Amino acid sequence: MTSSPPVPPQPHCSSSSADPGSMPVVFASELSKAFGRHSAAVTALDRVTVGFEAERFTSIMGPSGSGKSTLLHCLAGLERPTSGSVVIGGSDLSRLSEAQLTTLRRDHLGFVFQAFNLVPTLTAEENITLSERIGGRRVDRQWVAHLVQVLDLGDRLRHRPSELSGGQQQRVAIARALAHRPTVVFADEPTGNLDSHTGGEVLRFLRLAVEQLGQTIVMVTHDPAAAAHTHRVVFLRDGRVEAETRNPSTEDILARLAPRRTAT
């Protein structure tokens, strides 16, 4: 009989942010990932060690092929690393079976993708609470109402996705990701399908989720303007962590990226 995975601690709802030196809620140690075998192997991650603090909004940036999406997938348990480990809230993902990983992702992680992935026949409210109902969990109506207020969705709850703008659909997807109070939310290019104005609104709501709802968000993006909404940026290059910066402006990020661009 397969034992249940350790339960990651739930984030408390607080307006304060974790101190920069606090214990990370997600930690990758010597993480490597190769695709293919022998002489055909391609290294996507090369001994990456990095932590992500609770109640912080962190972005991962890097040029195409730097390994940023692979890192996110390994952190979230969507891919198994070739070597190294990932710990989320005390759970070592390398020690979990596929069934246990599925349970952890369902109950303790949230996901926001470039595609909204809403069920077209359901209303916004039904999409937000879908995971709880599928998992047989009680819907915390008070928490969902708070999410709806923060994300400004109160007048859209009975609308179906086709009746919502792209930004509204992504806000519904964010509310769905937060509805079960996940330990961490992983966002993969969440503004990739949106125009700059709408994308900026979505990013402001993601930051509000951290600062007002006490969530932890790790986001992959290629957009310096998007990364400027985060508390911290981790830069990858050739599968390794090259640098990081805190509380960046768009200009700070462009300056960091500029030497890499002129060298290619």
TrEMBL record:
<dbReference type="GO" id="GO:0022857">
    <property type="term" value="F:transmembrane transporter activity"/>
</dbReference>
<dbReference type="InterPro" id="IPR017871">
    <property type="entry name" value="ABC_transporter-like_CS"/>
</dbReference>
<dbReference type="InterPro" id="IPR027417">
    <property type="entry name" value="P-loop_NTPase"/>
</dbReference>
<feature type="compositionally biased region" description="Pro residues">
    <location>
        <begin position="1"/>
        <end position="11"/>
    </location>
</feature>
<dbReference type="InterPro" id="IPR017911">
    <property type="entry name" value="MacB-like_ATP-bd"/>
</dbReference>
<dbReference type="GO" id="GO:0016887">
    <property type="term" value="F:ATP hydrolysis activity"/>
</dbReference>
<feature type="domain" description="ABC transporter">
    <location>
        <begin position="26"/>
        <end position="263"/>
    </location>
</feature>
<keyword id="KW-0547">Nucleotide-binding</keyword>
<dbReference type="Pfam" id="PF00005">
    <property type="entry name" value="ABC_tran"/>
</dbReference>
<dbReference type="InterPro" id="IPR003593">
    <property type="entry name" value="AAA+_ATPase"/>
</dbReference>
<keyword id="KW-0813">Transport</keyword>
<dbReference type="InterPro" id="IPR015854">
    <property type="entry name" value="ABC_transpr_LolD-like"/>
</dbReference>
<dbReference type="GO" id="GO:0005886">
    <property type="term" value="C:plasma membrane"/>
</dbReference>
<feature type="region of interest" description="Disordered">
    <location>
        <begin position="1"/>
        <end position="20"/>
    </location>
</feature>
<dbReference type="GO" id="GO:0098796">
    <property type="term" value="C:membrane protein complex"/>
</dbReference>
<keyword id="KW-0067">ATP-binding</keyword>
<dbReference type="GO" id="GO:0005524">
    <property type="term" value="F:ATP binding"/>
</dbReference>
<dbReference type="InterPro" id="IPR003439">
    <property type="entry name" value="ABC_transporter-like_ATP-bd"/>
</dbReference>
<protein>
    <submittedName>
        <fullName>ABC transporter ATP-binding protein</fullName>
    </submittedName>
</protein>
